[in-house]
Amino acid sequence: MTMTQKILARAAGLPRVEAGQLIEAKLDLVLGNDITAPVAIREFAKTGVARVFDKDKVALVPDHFTPNKDIKAAEQCKILRSFACAQNITNFFDTGEVGVEHALLPERGLVGPGDVVIGADSHTCTYGALGAFSTGVGSTDMAAGMALGTAWFKVPSAMRFVLKNRFTDPWVSGKDVILHIIGLIGVDGALYQSMEYAGDGLNALTVDDRLCIANMAIEAGAKNGIFPVDQATRDFLKEVGRAQYTEFAADADASYTRTIEVDLATLRSTVAFPHLPSNTRLARDSGDVKIDQVVIGSCTNGRLSDMRVAARLLKGRHVAKGVRCIVIPATQKIYLQAMKEGLLEIFINAGAAVSTPTCGPCLGGHMGVLAKGERAMATTNRNFVGRMGHPESEVYLSNPAVAAATAITGRITDANELV
Amino acid sequence: MTAQGTVFRYGDNVDTDVIIPARYLTTSDPAELAAHCMEDIDQTFVKRVKKGDMIVADANFGCGSSREHAPIAIQAAGISCVIAKSFARIFYRNAINIGLPILECPEAAAAIQAGHTVSVDFDSGVITDKTTGKTFTAVAFPPFMKELIACGGLVEYVKAKRAGK
Ligand code: SF4
Asked: Quick one: three-class SS letters along A87-145?
């Protein structure tokens, strides 16, 4: 069995499972946000079930339109708050505590190896970085999950990605691995399947790199992305105070629909052009593309290491005239640490706006919505039509180094050009 | 169960951001969502759509976010069925869970044009293009999903399950 299949088999109480089999699995965590949880809470009420299956295993994270951007957003958040209070939900994070959900839950030790997690948010696949099976579902699934503590799954087949060697370009990171892969296989290249990572290249990837790579599994159509558990994972879990977990590994004879090798040494900073994450080119081959706004943040690249990379480039430099640069640390912890390390000061001196943690501009919500005809370079994960604002605006996706370099020059720039 | 209507035709990778843009996600009211359905890809959709009409699309329909607002908006706009070459997995789950019939049928997706009149028999999975007279057979739902749909969606399924215990 693949790593995913082994986790699912245990959660379903079965000795083994096969690809295509429908199973009912026990859940370790059910997640929702300020967009999806209000619908889930409404559906939960319809089930007639009085209490959630486990008040410690439901996480409610109002991160999208918060701090409440308008009256409607405030009403949505209020639904979460009231429900959390009535159900005595342990993991409800209100403004002041909240961060972008997929950065927040790992940091709080709420997800770990062997866990089965569903979230009413497509990037729930992020936790595969820590050896969990986690996948995005809809609000009705979330409601049923809260009621029963179980969910139905069709056991996925898997594609195997063997990572070799290590990065040789100092500005390349996890984002380039996943953009490269999506460019290769397309936005439905892994449809319904798991993306399982292997190879000696894993040793060179930080947990932040892995979180970023697993985060964008959905952009290849995958059900989940998953990494083996190693010392880097264990150190991370220790740091965040997650003590109990079960490590799973793929069987030596596990079958894969396809194996793809990725040589980390040859990767260069990669950019996804509008309007699909698969529309990739190397940053240095992007030509003269002028940019109006740069966004550094999100569940993909709003972590401390991303802040550090951006600060290294922005230190002593200034955002180009005519460019708006918005930096959004993904959680309060990251925000605080970035402050202590002097990173926020660097951003502000460089002429960037620094925001409290929120999804904000990533989905065109608030804090940096684009006007007609404007172009943004963002470290986020989606560049669909209208994703960041006006339907005739454009979004380009990159790692934080390209984003920072682009903020400085005003056009798509590989960071190597500056240093 | 059968449905019949006029076809709206779209291409590959119709994502949830165009089905219902995030700027409207501060509500979860189906009628309000329906009023903005497809507007970033087809501004005339909302004006032209009639109850019973169908959407026919190519690969990976519904890719992107997990927002259930997407199938809800389509359903509330009056669409009786979505036929596509393939669906993104979360959209597929959501549609089944809320009871919006969706059929995977590459042959039908390739042949049916905008404005054609199409009828669907959900029990047999047979799709008939009344304009050309051609028929197609969609991939049948696995038994578990049939059970879910027969219950009237996931919420009813949960209710039935709780009652049985
Ligand atoms: S940062 Fe963007 S992709 Fe991530 S959860 Fe928020 S809206 Fe979704």
From this structure: CCCCEECCCCCCCCHHHHHHHCCCCCCCCEEEECCHHHHHHHHHCCEEEECCHHHHHHH
Split at pLDDT 50, 70, 90, the class of A20 is confident
Smallest Cβ–Cβ distance between A46 and the set B18, B21, B155 belongs to B155
- Does any ligand 1 atom lie closer than 6 A to the CB of residue A299? yes
Q: What is the pLDDT of residues A77-134, one digit of tens each?
A: 999 999 999 999 999 999 999 999 999 999 999 999 999 999 999 999 999 999 999 9
Select the residue of A139, A188, A384 nearest B17 (Cβ to Cβ). A384
CB contact under 8 A, A121 and B66: yes
- Tell me the backbone φ, ψ of residue A226, rounded to 5 degrees: -145, 140
Beta strand A353-354 with A324-327 is parallel
pTM of this prediction?
0.94
**Rounded to a whole number, what is the distance in Å from the CA of A361 to chain B's nearest CA?**
10
Q: Would you call A40 exposed, middle or buried from its count of C-beta atoms within 10 A (0-12, 13-18, 19+)?
A: buried
- Is residue A342 helix, strand or coil? coil
Whether the CB of A378 is below 8 Å from some CB of chain B: the reply is: no
Closest residue, chain A, to B62 (C-alpha): A221
Q: Which two tokens stand for residue A381?
A: 């994960």
Type of residue numbered A162: V
Structure letter (DSSP) for residue A416: G
A36 and chain B: CB distance < 8 Å anywhere?
yes
Give the residue among A293, A273, A274 at the shortest CA–CA distance from A282.
A273
Q: State the virtual CA torsion across B60, B62, B63, B64 in degrees, nearest 10.
A: 170
